[in-house]
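Memo to structure team: turn this sequence into structure tokens by end of day. - J.P.
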Amino acid sequence: MKAKYDFSKGKRGAVIPVSGENVRITIRLDRDIVDWFRSMAEKQGGGSYQAMLNEVLRKYIERQAQIASPEWHRHTLEDTERRLSSGQEKILEWSEAKNKLRKRFE
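Reply from structure team:
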């Protein structure tokens, strides 16, 4: 073993560059979440708990994209936008809207 090593040309960071679309980040997660993913990776015979976590997040995102608003909702929003832009309707302050509703149901 040498008495002194020269690290003047050394670089900080990972020794092996990350390939593909992966991005290295620092994230804080609850201990029980990380423990669960690690144990699931172990039960499946090894592998990366981080890859498993990535897969779960990807499936969640894909699922959110599949949840569509009902057709009537789109029509209702379009009608409201049309009335607002034509001046037939205005956006009320919360207190004004609350008073208007109270009067309607008295």
